[in-house]
Amino acid sequence: MPLSEDAIARGVPRDAAALPGVAPRPAETWLRIVQVHDRITRRVDSALHRHHGLSLTGFEALRRIADSPGERASMGEVAEAVGLSRPGVTSTINRLVTEGLVIRERVEGDKRLLHARLTPAGRERVEAARVTHDELVAHLLTLIGDDAAVVTDALARVSAATRSRR
């Protein structure tokens, strides 16, 4: 006895949008973004600690300083680039100073403005860690596959729309 169409299709959504992952709800999209960020961050942080004795935050601060003119950046520039509060950047820079990777210096003409400048040891450490960071991140992001341009464009639009206006 042949099964009816209803019996064959029982439990199968008629609308493709009802399938998981096809048209995710905003809460699902948000959860995926948070999970991916958290997992990549933990993986990269672990590799940087293991191979270079640096946290991801320390690496990002060093990288920002290394990429600045004269390998020098203000505390505000580092905080903005790394997404830290003023106390957070102070704590991070304190650790880097203690390790001999950066020094603090005042700027000519404005003694109130404090900068962090890379030391030769800091330059060496950030360049070695840069290779580990960039290769690991590139490898993890290859999992996006052919959708990389679409994902990057979508995230850039959200980022631009949420950028703080001062």
UniProtKB/TrEMBL annotation:
Any one GO BP annotation for this protein: response to stress
An example molecular function term from Gene Ontology annotations: DNA-binding transcription factor activity
InterPro entries reported for this sequence: HTH_MarR-typ, MarR/SlyA-like, WH-like_DNA-bd_sf, WH_DNA-bd_sf
Domain called HTH marR-type: residue spans: 26-160
PROSITE patterns given in the database record: HTH_MARR_2
Pfam families assigned to the protein according to its UniProt record, in alphabetical order: MarR_2
Family matches, as PANTHER family: MARR FAMILY REGULATORY PROTEIN (PTHR33164:SF99), TRANSCRIPTIONAL REGULATOR, MARR FAMILY (PTHR33164)
Name of the protein in its database record: Transcriptional regulator, MarR family
Organism: Blastococcus saxobsidens (strain DD2)
